[in-house]
Specification:
By secondary structure, the chain is mostly helical. It has one domain: Nucleotidyltransferases  domain 2 (Four Helix Bundle (Hemerythrin (Met), subunit A)), CATH 1.20.120. The protein has six helices and no strands. The radius of gyration is 14 Å and the shape is globular. The mean pLDDT is 93.
Length: 135
């Protein structure tokens, strides 16, 4: 693990989140949904790299959060609660990865707004997990 690799992943996550917000403003809802998923996925991977020294070879955000919960037992309960509270939204976020790339379906404004907000909340939450683990 290198500090530079962690920074690269976090910077990419921040860039995807910024692009998701911009896409939402420009009514590019499919791209907003896809970018939200990428932001969440990359940020979790950066935290996993920082905490465990490894990047998970997964693409589903929910699976990564469960893996994170097992990697930081002191925060397991809070992570599981976050997943349970946001189960349907996280499912939609995971689906955005596939549907926006491979399927001829369209994201709505409401879906895009929800996923951008979820990505923001998830990033804040996972960052809090990291800070708690460092204490």
């Amino acid at each position: 693990m290198s500090i530079e690799e962690i920074k690269i992943l976090k910077r990419r996550a921040e860039t995807f989140l910024r692009h998701a917000k911009e896409a939402l403003e420009h009514e590019e809802f499919d791209f907003a949904c896809f970018s939200s998923e990428q932001a969440a996925q990359l940020f979790i991977k950066s935290i996993m790299l920082e905490l465990t020294g490894e990047v998970p070879r997964l693409h589903k955000v929910r699976e990564m959060l469960y893996l994170l919960s097992k990697s930081v037992p002191e925060m397991e309960k809070q992570i599981i609660e976050f997943v349970e509270k946001n189960k349907e939204k996280l499912r939609a976020l995971d689906d955005a990865y596939i549907t926006s790339r491979y399927l001829p379906s369209v994201c709505t404004n409401e879906e895009a707004e929800m996923l951008v907000k979820l990505a923001e909340d998830l990033i804040k939450f996972v960052d809090k997990v990291l800070k708690e683990c460092k204490h």
